[in-house]
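Most newcomers find our protein records easier to grasp once they have seen one. To make this concrete, we reproduce a full record directly below:

…
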Amino acid sequence: MSHEFYHTEVTERSWRMLQAFQGQFPFTLIGGWAAWCYTGGPKSRDIDVIVSYPTLGKLRLEYPLVKNDRLRKYEVPLDGFDLDVYVEHYSTTLAVPPEALLERTFTMQGFAVPPVEALLALKLGAWVDRRASIHGAKDLADIRGLLPLLDRGRWAALPQDYGLSRGQVARLSQAWAALAPLVPRRVREKAGLPDPQRARPSVDPCT
Protein backbone atom coordinates (compact mmCIF):
# COMPACT_ATOMS: atom_id res chain seq x y z
CA MET A 1 0.00 0.00 0.00
CA SER A 2 1.42 3.36 -1.00
CA HIS A 3 2.07 6.17 1.46
CA GLU A 4 -0.61 8.85 1.23
CA PHE A 5 0.33 12.52 1.63
CA TYR A 6 -3.10 14.06 2.14
CA HIS A 7 -6.19 13.28 4.19
CA THR A 8 -8.31 10.56 2.65
CA GLU A 9 -11.50 12.63 2.88
CA VAL A 10 -9.91 15.40 0.83
CA THR A 11 -8.49 13.10 -1.83
CA GLU A 12 -11.84 11.33 -2.15
CA ARG A 13 -13.63 14.65 -2.65
CA SER A 14 -11.01 15.61 -5.21
CA TRP A 15 -11.47 12.29 -7.03
CA ARG A 16 -15.24 12.68 -7.17
CA MET A 17 -14.85 16.21 -8.50
CA LEU A 18 -12.39 15.00 -11.14
CA GLN A 19 -14.82 12.35 -12.31
CA ALA A 20 -17.64 14.90 -12.55
CA PHE A 21 -15.39 17.38 -14.32
CA GLN A 22 -14.43 14.74 -16.88
CA GLY A 23 -17.93 14.59 -18.26
CA GLN A 24 -18.27 18.35 -18.59
CA PHE A 25 -15.22 19.59 -20.50
CA PRO A 26 -12.34 18.25 -22.61
CA PHE A 27 -8.97 18.47 -20.89
CA THR A 28 -5.56 16.85 -20.51
CA LEU A 29 -5.00 15.67 -16.96
CA ILE A 30 -1.56 16.38 -15.49
CA GLY A 31 -0.11 16.55 -11.98
CA GLY A 32 -0.57 14.02 -9.24
CA TRP A 33 -3.79 12.49 -10.52
CA ALA A 34 -2.18 11.81 -13.91
CA ALA A 35 0.73 10.09 -12.15
CA TRP A 36 -1.77 8.03 -10.16
CA CYS A 37 -3.42 6.92 -13.42
CA TYR A 38 -0.10 5.38 -14.46
CA THR A 39 1.22 4.06 -11.18
CA GLY A 40 -1.66 3.67 -8.72
CA GLY A 41 0.61 5.43 -6.24
CA PRO A 42 -0.28 8.18 -3.75
CA LYS A 43 -3.53 9.97 -4.51
CA SER A 44 -3.57 13.66 -5.28
CA ARG A 45 -5.29 16.54 -3.55
CA ASP A 46 -5.41 19.26 -6.19
CA ILE A 47 -6.65 18.67 -9.74
CA ASP A 48 -4.37 19.94 -12.52
CA VAL A 49 -5.62 20.16 -16.09
CA ILE A 50 -4.64 21.74 -19.39
CA VAL A 51 -7.39 23.18 -21.60
CA SER A 52 -7.74 25.07 -24.85
CA TYR A 53 -8.94 28.67 -24.94
CA PRO A 54 -12.44 27.71 -26.14
CA THR A 55 -12.75 25.33 -23.19
CA LEU A 56 -11.50 28.05 -20.85
CA GLY A 57 -14.37 30.23 -22.01
CA LYS A 58 -16.87 27.52 -21.12
CA LEU A 59 -15.23 27.02 -17.74
CA ARG A 60 -15.70 30.70 -16.93
CA LEU A 61 -19.45 30.20 -17.19
CA GLU A 62 -19.46 27.39 -14.64
CA TYR A 63 -16.64 28.11 -12.18
CA PRO A 64 -15.28 31.22 -10.40
CA LEU A 65 -11.87 31.19 -12.11
CA VAL A 66 -9.16 33.30 -10.47
CA LYS A 67 -6.28 34.28 -12.74
CA ASN A 68 -2.80 33.79 -11.26
CA ASP A 69 -0.45 35.78 -13.48
CA ARG A 70 2.62 34.87 -11.42
CA LEU A 71 2.14 31.13 -11.94
CA ARG A 72 0.45 31.57 -15.33
CA LYS A 73 -2.65 29.55 -14.51
CA TYR A 74 -6.26 29.83 -13.38
CA GLU A 75 -7.41 28.57 -10.00
CA VAL A 76 -10.73 27.47 -8.55
CA PRO A 77 -10.76 26.98 -4.74
CA LEU A 78 -12.95 23.99 -3.88
CA ASP A 79 -13.72 21.97 -0.77
CA GLY A 80 -10.23 21.52 0.70
CA PHE A 81 -8.44 21.40 -2.66
CA ASP A 82 -7.94 23.47 -5.81
CA LEU A 83 -8.69 23.02 -9.46
CA ASP A 84 -5.65 24.42 -11.30
CA VAL A 85 -6.26 25.19 -14.96
CA TYR A 86 -3.34 25.62 -17.36
CA VAL A 87 -3.96 27.07 -20.81
CA GLU A 88 -2.25 26.65 -24.17
CA HIS A 89 0.29 29.40 -24.99
CA TYR A 90 -0.31 31.09 -21.61
CA SER A 91 0.95 28.66 -18.97
CA THR A 92 4.65 29.09 -19.67
CA THR A 93 5.73 28.06 -16.15
CA LEU A 94 5.20 24.40 -17.03
CA ALA A 95 8.30 22.39 -17.91
CA VAL A 96 6.65 21.35 -21.20
CA PRO A 97 4.60 23.69 -23.44
CA PRO A 98 0.92 23.05 -22.65
CA GLU A 99 -0.16 23.27 -26.28
CA ALA A 100 2.10 20.32 -27.09
CA LEU A 101 0.50 18.32 -24.28
CA LEU A 102 -2.99 18.90 -25.65
CA GLU A 103 -1.92 17.25 -28.90
CA ARG A 104 -0.28 14.14 -27.43
CA THR A 105 -2.25 12.05 -24.96
CA PHE A 106 -2.96 8.49 -23.90
CA THR A 107 -6.12 7.27 -22.21
CA MET A 108 -5.39 5.93 -18.73
CA GLN A 109 -8.09 5.14 -16.19
CA GLY A 110 -10.51 6.86 -18.54
CA PHE A 111 -8.60 10.17 -18.63
CA ALA A 112 -6.51 11.83 -21.33
CA VAL A 113 -3.00 12.06 -19.87
CA PRO A 114 0.42 12.95 -21.34
CA PRO A 115 2.90 10.22 -22.28
CA VAL A 116 5.03 9.06 -19.35
CA GLU A 117 8.08 11.02 -20.53
CA ALA A 118 6.19 14.31 -20.78
CA LEU A 119 4.48 13.76 -17.43
CA LEU A 120 7.83 12.96 -15.84
CA ALA A 121 9.22 16.22 -17.22
CA LEU A 122 6.29 18.15 -15.74
CA LYS A 123 6.81 16.46 -12.38
CA LEU A 124 10.57 17.16 -12.42
CA GLY A 125 9.92 20.81 -13.20
CA ALA A 126 7.51 21.09 -10.28
CA TRP A 127 9.72 19.12 -7.88
CA VAL A 128 12.88 21.15 -8.46
CA ASP A 129 10.98 24.33 -7.55
CA ARG A 130 9.43 23.05 -4.30
CA ARG A 131 11.60 20.26 -2.96
CA ALA A 132 11.37 21.38 0.66
CA SER A 133 7.55 21.23 0.86
CA ILE A 134 5.03 18.43 1.24
CA HIS A 135 4.11 19.05 -2.39
CA GLY A 136 7.74 18.44 -3.31
CA ALA A 137 7.74 15.18 -1.37
CA LYS A 138 4.61 14.12 -3.24
CA ASP A 139 6.28 15.09 -6.55
CA LEU A 140 9.27 12.93 -5.69
CA ALA A 141 7.03 9.95 -4.89
CA ASP A 142 5.29 10.39 -8.25
CA ILE A 143 8.63 10.68 -10.05
CA ARG A 144 9.90 7.47 -8.44
CA GLY A 145 6.75 5.71 -9.60
CA LEU A 146 7.08 6.97 -13.17
CA LEU A 147 10.81 6.31 -13.65
CA PRO A 148 10.49 2.52 -14.19
CA LEU A 149 8.02 3.25 -17.02
CA LEU A 150 10.37 5.64 -18.80
CA ASP A 151 11.44 4.95 -22.40
CA ARG A 152 14.97 6.36 -22.72
CA GLY A 153 14.67 6.93 -26.46
CA ARG A 154 11.49 9.00 -26.10
CA TRP A 155 13.04 10.82 -23.12
CA ALA A 156 16.09 11.79 -25.17
CA ALA A 157 13.83 13.05 -27.97
CA LEU A 158 11.59 15.05 -25.62
CA PRO A 159 13.18 18.50 -26.18
CA GLN A 160 12.81 18.22 -29.94
CA ASP A 161 9.43 16.47 -29.97
CA TYR A 162 7.81 18.96 -27.60
CA GLY A 163 9.65 22.10 -28.62
CA LEU A 164 11.31 22.79 -25.29
CA SER A 165 13.11 26.10 -24.87
CA ARG A 166 16.72 26.28 -23.68
CA GLY A 167 15.46 27.40 -20.31
CA GLN A 168 13.14 24.41 -20.02
CA VAL A 169 15.95 22.01 -20.99
CA ALA A 170 18.27 23.60 -18.42
CA ARG A 171 15.59 23.31 -15.73
CA LEU A 172 15.07 19.62 -16.49
CA SER A 173 18.82 18.96 -16.54
CA GLN A 174 19.13 20.56 -13.11
CA ALA A 175 16.30 18.43 -11.76
CA TRP A 176 17.67 15.26 -13.41
CA ALA A 177 21.06 15.68 -11.72
CA ALA A 178 19.47 16.48 -8.34
CA LEU A 179 17.25 13.42 -8.59
CA ALA A 180 20.07 10.91 -9.10
CA PRO A 181 21.08 10.41 -5.43
CA LEU A 182 17.45 9.95 -4.40
CA VAL A 183 16.57 6.81 -6.36
CA PRO A 184 17.81 3.21 -6.05
CA ARG A 185 20.80 2.25 -8.17
CA ARG A 186 18.81 -0.25 -10.23
CA VAL A 187 16.21 2.35 -11.19
CA ARG A 188 18.90 4.98 -11.75
CA GLU A 189 20.80 2.79 -14.18
CA LYS A 190 17.66 1.75 -16.08
CA ALA A 191 16.55 5.36 -16.50
CA GLY A 192 20.03 6.63 -17.40
CA LEU A 193 20.39 8.93 -14.42
CA PRO A 194 23.94 10.08 -13.63
CA ASP A 195 25.97 8.18 -11.06
CA PRO A 196 26.18 10.54 -8.04
CA GLN A 197 29.48 8.90 -7.01
CA ARG A 198 31.28 10.06 -10.13
CA ALA A 199 33.16 13.34 -10.28
CA ARG A 200 31.56 14.08 -13.64
CA PRO A 201 27.92 13.04 -14.22
CA SER A 202 27.04 10.84 -17.15
CA VAL A 203 25.30 12.32 -20.15
CA ASP A 204 21.87 13.74 -19.39
CA PRO A 205 19.40 12.05 -21.76
CA CYS A 206 17.40 15.26 -21.92
CA THR A 207 20.14 17.34 -23.56
